[in-house]
Design a protein that fits this description.
Largest sheet: none
Shape: flat
Strand content: under 5%
Order of helices and strands: HH
Radius of gyration: 17 Å
Number of helices: 2
Helix content: over 70%
Number of strands: 0
Length: about 70
């Protein structure tokens, strides 16, 4: 039996799971732990995650547009 080690997972499901975990943990901590002293860290991490997602999408669109032109 031959095992194909060159398979690649598509980026979209990986990013959906990653952002789901980050936002899930953030929402859980912010909603159920109102007086947590680390809330400012969670807000900053949420902003960084959103910014990283937007940059990733922008770079992907730019590369796709550059290839078609």
């Amino acid at each position: 039996m031959k095992i194909d080690k060159n398979t690649q997972i598509p980026n979209t499901p990986v990013y959906v799971v990653l952002f789901g975990i980050v936002f899930g943990v953030n929402v859980w901590l912010l909603v159920f732990r109102n007086e947590s002293p680390t809330n400012w860290i969670l807000y900053a991490l949420t902003a960084v995650a959103v910014f990283a997602g937007l940059v990733r999408l922008a770079l992907k669109r730019r590369d796709k547009h550059a290839r078609t032109s």
